[in-house]
Design a protein that fits this description.
elongated, alpha+beta, 22 helices
Length: 563
């Protein structure tokens, strides 16, 4: 029964309900909820469904010539993948068992057609089964077929661990380095310098603009909660100086940092979404930044309008009394690093990764030497770029605070402790996404690529919004939605760039922020808002920013679907 469309729907709903219910009802940690969901989904998925997924993921479509049954056409292959003279197994889907069975072998006899990616092969049948071109025929190397057989015999624990490990390979170093960068920016005073310099350049009347763009800039390498912790004392200080506009300061801090949190790597959510959907990291940074800035500008305008109609009083908060706040702002600027040195750990990885993406694009106009391309490729590697940035951030901390290596070690240990939790959650989400793909979920939406790009992106937005609203965490919502939708992105069937799908998921993680969201409580408690005020001011702003993000994505996918 589970080896059917409704069975796949049932398994999907069970997995999503376990994630949402475990977090919302039982208050389980997100890591445990995602691992539990992955184990249950792996347990419920029939072996025949897994076999079909694994074979179709590693094989080529085959057609039999009706006039020449001994000759096959293998589609989607290049001469490098299937060189002339190579021998490959041919499998056919048995309609009764819904499993692929070996029906023969094929020997490639022609070079691949460069336009159609088709090779011809001589077919030799080795079974008594009737070879029917109306049934699904696939060509796959025998070694790959044996590897699939071995994987099918693995336990559900091994299946989940494989997905967990493969995700760690993609994002583990990145998140660890981002955590170190964020911690060093805070401890060295670099983050404080960026905000203060932006405020000084913009001037006191333009402080909300400074808060918006400082929040966005800092939200790229630093987690949202940390950015808000850093900037809210400055917002309160501006309120003490001006005697007004406290609501405007709070909302502009939120609108900048929250969009970077969901759209621009190396923040964990968009980082994993990019990896799950096969989006180049440089492209994700560039497009995510564009979409995020549109949303942040809208959030700024929204904050101005709300501030003109409502007023938020400045109150003592559990973390800062007003007296403590005034003391914290008396740090002499001479004790802070220079602006460009403070900004370098943030700018460097963006420049290196984006530069590599631009140079690697086929339309790049300059013909570089092989050695130059190799250097750019090495420095633009996401792991190397973040590692270099982390080294610079640690250097800034040592230089500015005269920190000993022992104190630096303690600081890094603290950063890795918090980053390690994020790695666990993100890798568990990757494991959940992998076992979801093996349920055959892509078959449920196999006709989706035939729908309009606008419909696909809107669906991605709505799926993410539903999960975010139900369980509260934007990152978990993005991870879960990416697992559901990755099948249609990775098979190359999308009629547009998958980065638009990734940004639609990021925008969909904004609605609806309410009491089940830890970020909601950080904002309300640190700013001195009541829960009712949070629902009145924060919830509608972030939700409408998400909708604006979707509109920007829809505009992009309509007028510039491929690049």
């Amino acid at each position: 029964m589970l080896d059917s469309t409704w069975g796949t729907v049932f398994i999907l709903m069970v997995g999503v309900c376990i994630v949402v219910g475990s977090i919302l009802i039982f208050r389980l940690h997100a890591f445990l909820a995602l691992v539990a969901a992955a184990l249950v989904v792996a347990f419920l998925t029939p072996e025949s469904t897994r076999q079909r997924y694994l074979i179709e993921n590693d094989s080529f479509v085959v057609h039999v010539d009706a006039d020449q049954p001994d000759e096959l056409r293998i589609h989607g292959a290049t001469s490098k993948q299937l060189p002339p003279g190579s021998t490959i197994s041919v499998v056919q889907l048995d309609p009764k068992t819904q499993r692929y069975e070996v029906v023969g072998t094929a020997r490639v006899v022609s070079e691949a057609d460069p336009e159609l990616s088709v090779v011809r092969a001589e077919f030799q049948q080795t079974s008594d089964a009737t070879v029917d071109d109306k049934l699904l025929l696939r060509a796959i190397y025998s070694n790959d077929l044996q590897s699939i057989g071995k994987e099918l015999r693995s336990t559900i624990g091994a299946q989940v661990a494989t997905g967990f490990g493969s995700t760690c390979t993609k994002i583990g170093i990145l998140i660890a380095m981002a955590a170190i960068i964020g911690k060093c920016l805070l401890d060295s005073g670099a983050a404080d310098r960026i905000v203060r310099t932006t405020l000084r350049l913009c001037g006191e009347p333009a402080a909300p603009v400074a808060f918006t763009f400082s929040g966005f800039f800092l939200g790229i390498p630093v987690f949202f909660d940390t950015v808000f912790y850093l900037m809210i004392p400055l917002g309160k200080a501006m309120r003490l100086r001006t005697g007004k506009n406290y609501l405007l300061y709070v909302l502009t801090i939120v609108c900048g940092a929250t969009m970077a949190h969901s759209l621009v790597p190396p923040t964990p959510g968009p980082l994993l979404v990019a990896e799950e959907l096969g989006v180049d990291l440089g492209v994700m940074i560039l497009v995510g930044t564009i979409v995020g800035l549109f949303c942040a500008v809208y959030g700024y305008i929204y904050a101005l309008i709300i501030n003109s109609r409502c007023e938020l009083p400045l109150r003592d908060s559990p973390d800062f009394s007003l007296e403590e706040l005034e003391e914290s702002l008396k740090v002499d600027e001479s004790q802070l690093p220079g602006f460009w040195m403070a900004s370098l750990p943030i700018l460097l990885p963006v420049i290196l990764i984006s530069g590599h993406t631009l140079v690697s694009h086929p339309s790049f106009p300059i013909d570089l030497s092989l050695s130059t391309k190799r250097v750019i490729e090495t420095l633009g590697d996401k792991n190397i770029a973040l590692l270099l940035s982390a080294i610079i951030a640690m250097g800034v901390l040592i230089r500015q605070k005269r920190t000993s290596f022992e104190d630096l070690s303690k600081s890094i240990q603290s950063a890795l402790a918090s980053g390690g939790v994020i790695i666990l959650i993100t890798a568990a989400g990757g494991a959940f996404g992998q076992v979801l793909r093996q349920t055959g979920i892509a078959d449920l939406i196999q006709n989706l690529p035939d729908a309009s790009p606008q419909v696909i992106c809107t669906l991605a937005f709505l799926i993410t919004t539903a999960i975010r609203t139900a369980q509260g965490s934007a990152s978990v919502a993005m991870i879960t939605a990416a697992g559901i939708l990755s099948g249609i992105a990775l098979d190359g069937g999308l009629p547009f760039e998958p980065v638009y799908l990734a940004c639609a998921i990021g925008a969909g993680s904004k609605p609806i922020a309410w009491m089940n969201d830890s970020g909601f409580w950080v904002i309300t408690k640190m700013s001195g808002m009541s829960e009712a005020e949070g629902l009145k001011y924060i919830t509608p702003m972030t939700a409408s920013m998400g909708v604006v993000g979707l509109l920007v994505v829809l505009a992009g996918v309509t007028f510039y679907p491929n690049f």
